[in-house]
Amino acid sequence: MRLLLFLFFLILLSWQVVVADTVKIEFTADDSYSIEVADIGVGDTIEWLPKNEGHNVEFLAGPNMEALPGKSDLNVRYAITFDLPGVYLYQCTPHGNMGMLGLIVVGNNFDNLGNIEEVELSRVAKSVLQRLIRVAKSNK
Ligand SMILES: [Cu+2]
What we know:
The model has no long low-confidence stretch (mean pLDDT 93). By secondary structure, the protein is an alpha/beta fold. Helices cover 28% and strands 24% of the residues. It has 3 helices and 7 strands; from the N terminus they run αβββββββαα. The chain has helices at residues 2-19, 113-117, 123-138, and strands at 22-26, 37-40, 45-49, 58-61, 78-81, 86-91, 101-106. The longest helix has 18 residues, at 2-19. The protein has one domain (20-138): Immunoglobulin-like. The strands form 2 sheets. A 4-stranded mixed beta sheet has the order 2-7-6-4. The structure holds copper (II) ion. Residues 31, 54-55, 92, 94-95, 100 line the site of copper (II) ion (CU).
């Protein structure tokens, strides 16, 4: 019985390793992210690829405001694994005011959406954010 239980957990563990996904998002030539709204599972990874120069990733809000993922340097590959469910908002530091934003929804959890909507943004970025939120909700 113990052995069976052990085998069961082993299978469960390896299954989780297999299903953890990596989503690739590129910096594009028109100052945007190739995927603006990413719906991922808990434990999935997002990898940003510097396919176009002059961009980065800077987190503005997330489910744990005390421990947001760090800001990346310009023109580098960047990867983060998301273990905490919720909505994350990030921008490109040089182009955030122009609306170069991205939204990540981890585990289909919208509990902190209120915090996301309260982030101070330029007028253009604010309207981009509203559009991204609409897209995220329609993916629910
Ligand atoms: Cu940029």
